[in-house]
C-alpha cells in the first residue's frame, strides 16, 4: 500500500468522523517531500477554526502515525466540487 493510500485510510478512520460530525470533510491534494497538502470541505472549508483544526488536530494525528510527514498544510481556495455546485445553482436561478 502506498503512503498516500495509508494516509487516506488514516483520514477515514481517525479524522473524517470528527469533521463529518460538524458537516465537513477533508481531501488530500498532494503528498510530496514530506508535506501533506489538504483541503477542508463542506462546513469546515469556510470555518474560522480551519487553520487551528489543521494545526492542532489533523497535524498531530498524521505526524503521530507517519513521522515522515514533516508538515500538514491547509490549501486555500475553492474545491472543484464546490465550484461545480455553485455553477449549477446559478444556472437554475432566473
From TrEMBL:
Signal peptide: none annotated. Residues 8-72 form the NIF system FeS cluster assembly NifU C-terminal domain. It holds the Pfam family NifU. InterPro entries: FSCA_dom_sf (IPR034904), NIF_FeS_clus_asmbl_NifU_C (IPR001075). Transmembrane segments: none annotated. It comes from the Bacteria. May be involved in the formation or repair of [Fe-S] clusters present in iron-sulfur proteins. This is NifU-like protein. It comes from Megasphaera lornae. The lineage of its organism: Bacteria, Bacillati, Bacillota, Negativicutes, Veillonellales.
Amino acid at each position: 500500500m502506498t503512503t498516500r493510500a495509508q494516509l487516506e485510510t488514516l483520514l477515514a478512520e481517525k479524522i473524517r468522523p470528527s469533521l463529518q460530525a460538524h458537516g465537513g470533510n477533508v481531501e488530500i491534494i498532494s503528498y510530496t517531500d514530506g508535506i501533506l497538502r489538504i483541503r477542508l470541505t463542506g462546513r469546515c472549508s469556510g470555518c474560522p477554526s480551519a487553520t487551528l483544526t489543521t494545526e492542532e488536530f489533523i497535524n498531530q494525528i498524521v505526524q503521530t502515525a507517519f513521522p515522515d510527514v514533516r508538515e500538514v498544510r491547509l490549501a486555500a481556495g475553492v474545491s472543484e466540487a464546490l465550484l461545480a455546485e455553485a455553477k449549477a445553482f446559478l444556472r437554475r436561478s432566473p
